[in-house]
Structures are given as structure tokens and as C-alpha cells.
Model the fold of this input.
Amino acid sequence: MGFNSKNRRMAKYVIETENLSKEYPYGFLNLKKKTSLEGLNLQVEQGEVFGFLGPNGAGKSTTIKLLMSLIFPTSGTARILGKSIEDVSMHQDVGYLPEQPYFYDYLTAAEVLDYFARFHRLTATDRRARVDRMLKKVGLETAKKIQLRKYSKGMLQRVGMAQAILHDPQVVVLDEPMSGLDPLGRREVRDIILELKKEGRTVLFSTHILSDAETLCDRVGVIVGGKLRGVGTPGEIVGIAAQGMEILFEFTGEAKNLPLLSGATKTGELFRVQVAEMELYATLDQLKAAGARIRSVAQIKPTLEEFFVNLVAADRAQANAVEVSGK
Amino acid sequence: MRNVWTVATNAFREAVRDRVLYNLVFFALLMIGASILVGQISIGIEQTVIVSLGLTATSVIGLMIAIFIGVGLVSKEMDKRTLYALLAKPVERWQFLIGKFIGLVMTLAVNTAMMAAGLYAALWVVKHPLERNDAYVLVAVYLILLKLAIIVALALLFSCLTTPFLAILFTVGIYVAGVFAHDLRTVQAVNLSDGTMRLMRGISYVLPNFENFNVMGAVAHGEAVAWRLVWQATLYALLYCAIVLAAAAAVFSRRNLK
Done:
């Protein structure tokens, strides 16, 4: 729908930031400054799904709000589709889902979508068709005539998703799109993101859920304490395969006296044991010989929290080292 | 202009759905009560009582809507974060602001027009047929609407600058000062220095002069209103609103949302 023709004018990077920083003044007479984002240099390429990972308060939402011109940078610049973020026309090709979105509660879902569609210069017929299509896509067809004040948090999130992609944007920026959703809703959002990727659109979304980043992202950027700590594939960045394997098993008869059972934890009838990746097959052979039934074998992945804790600890260690060598 | 109109019609829809126009029920009851009472107790001054009461109620109710809803126009959207999705659309911040202003002025126009209809109905009950000079009640209502438009612009400016509570205080303060702006300009006090007099005169020109819109006394007594006064007041209100809205847009265009 005009999407390919729009693509021709595409800059090398779809989203590009240069030394983007944001400080918030606070305290008496706003004399103190808190840095929320420090010198962010980020490039998102055409057609990729980019995950912005970080704990709460890391600067994810600040970055997204800066990109959407909801707040203004203290220094630095950013461009989307080659246009400065200060150029309002940039929003014609960009869709945005705010974190915990909230819309005019006196409007129905169909009305709120029609209202937003009006800013995209769409004809009344086109607007009607798109609104119906989007409501169907996010599963709100049957609730389209209900005022939003009666909507649940999850339903509002769906309306938010619908308004973000209503105008067929080339770039979609989603701030915590899975938050507040039940497992089914999360899956639907994941499907929508994958569909957007299939259509060749670029998606930037923030999350602190590692599995979302793993299943959806071509690349992730990790941000902690307002600083970008690394960009790469989810595996590269978080080091997913580094912590070994976990085997879940049970015995059909009497539990055998195996040495590895001393390191296992027992829950009900199930035993759980962790081994290094290279010892996996030997362990499985031992268990087989002892007559154990294997229930599952899974990689042990670090949680994002662990990853962030390690990052912060590494930062502190480095800071201490600098201090000591300075002495 | 299309974006401004889209925001304006939505602001009007919001006011209607949030039952702002329900105040008309109160106004209707007031007018019915007044016409019954006036019919019983006053002889020869029905017109003065009904018109004065009707115009005062139109002005006071309009002021309350202009101040309280005017301050909420932007601050409510920022607090509830409904602005986030909107400002990420191809819409300039000033377009949003002007749209909100026009939306509330449209609401006030419908409100005051309905009140004018109620006032005429009450007038017809106490003295019929209506006279030619009764048409000037409409002029008085129009001038009240101009005054309310200035209040809305001021409420918008203050809500862009500070918290809703302080914005209400400032708007009310400017309104009260504006009512006395004319007196401030013409005051002759023997014990004040030239400098103080000049300062007071200077302030009186910055404040909105609401005396320009007050023809209640004349209209209540069935007198005519000079057309020159009407277009001068219109021009004054347009200019004042334009300056205040330009200031509000300048502040809002660089405001960081939460």
C-alpha cells in the first residue's frame, strides 16, 4: 500500500541516534541534574526487529520518548527514515505504542482509531476499512462499540497496538508492548511483530523479558544506567548457552544409588540435575543405565536480571580498579 | 488547519460526552423559578430582573466551565497520558493547542446560545410580546462569549506553565484583576507618585479589560448597544486570544511530557 514506493527514499539506517543525551533537572531551583540517557549512539537497520533491553529506569522509555519528540534531548540528534525527529512529517511513516497506553475513555475503540487515522490524511472510506481491519487483527471486533472506559488493561494495549500500525507505517516503535497482557495476548503481539517483519517493516521495541527478545529480535541493544552496553544478536549479547544443561528425570521403580543424585534436587517424584554441556550425553547414558525416565532436557539460560546484575557488578569492579590504580 | 479542526471537534465531543452541557438544566430551572417569582412580585421591572439574572448566570456558569475545563484541556491529557499517542502522529503541538481552544469555545458557544434561548423564553413568559431592543440581549451574550474565549486562552497558557491548581488560581486572579483593569487605568489618587501611577496604567493595558464586554446594565434596561463597541470588542478579544495562545504554544512546544 504505497509501502514499496516509500522505501525508495530510505536512508541507510532507519533509526539513527548520535550522542543522544537527556538530563532531568531536580532539587531546589532545579540546580541538580539526573542523567537518564548518556551519549546514545544507536543504529537500527531497515527491516530488522530490534529489541531494546534493560531493567526498569535504564533509559529505554526515555530513548523512545526522545525518538517520538515527547521529550527533548539535552544534547545530540536522532533521525528516523533520514528525517530529523523534530520534523513532524516524520510521524507519517512511524507508528508508536506508548508504555501502558491510555486513550480518550469517552470514545469507543472504533472512534479512537478513526480519530487518529484522520491525522494521516486518509479518506473516510479508507479510514473505515482500516479501522475494521485493525480491530479484527487485534481481536476487538466485538467490543468496537464499547467506550474505552469499560476496557481492561489488556484491551487498551490492543487498541494501542492497532493505532500504532493503522496507517501502514514503515517503522513501528513499541514501548513494552507485552506488559499487562495475558499469555494469549502476548502471543498475539508476538505474531503481529513477526508479521510486521515479514512485510519488511522495521520494528524497535523495548522489553525486560528475555524470551521476547530471543524469539523476536534480529538484534538487541542492552541499556543499563542510561548507557548502551552492547548491541548484537540476543545470543551474543546475553551469552545464552553459557550456563549448561538441566535434566529432569524420574525412576519408574526404586531410585538407584547414583553418584549424581547427590547433586540433584527432588520435587515430588522428579529429580532435577544441572550438568555442563559437554557432560550431557555421559550423564544421559548413566541415567538410562540406571533405568531413569528422562522427562526433559533444557538449556540453562541466565535471566536478564542475572545478566544486568553481572553488568552492574562488572561496572563497580572496574570503577574500584581505576580508583586503586589512581592511588 | 485540518488537524486543528480534528482536535477541536473531538474536544467538543469530549465536553458533550462528559456531560458539561448538563449545566443547562440548572440554568433552565433558574430561569423558570425567576420568571414565576418575578411575575408575582415585581411590576414594571420584569425585563431588568430577568435579563440581569439571565446574563449574570450565563457569565458565571460560562466562567466556571472556561476556567475548570480550560485548565484541564492540556493538563488532563498530560496526566492521563492520552497525549502520547496523539503527539506521535503528524500533528504539530500548536495545532493540538489551538484545536483544544476552539473545541472549548465551540462548547461555550453552544452553551451560551442555549442559555440565550432560555432567557428569551423566560422574558416572553413575563412580558409578551418581545420588543425590538430585546434583540440586544443577543449582543450581550455574544460579548460574554468573547470574554469567555479570553479566559479559556489564559487558562490554557497557565496550564502549560504550571500545575492545574496554580493555573486555576492564576486564571481566577487575572479575571478579577481584568474586571478592575478599567478602574486601574482611570484611577486618580492624590497620594500616589507619578511612577506608581504609570506602573498601574501599564499593568492595566497588559491585563484583559473585561469592562469592554460588559453591556449588561444597558441591555437590562432595554437600551441599544453601539455597533462600534461590538466590533471593537471583537477585535480586542481576537488580538488578546492570539497573543495569549501564541505564548501558550511557545511554552508547550518545548515542554517535556512526563
Summary: DSSP finds eleven helices and no strands in chain B. The mean pLDDT of chain B is 89.
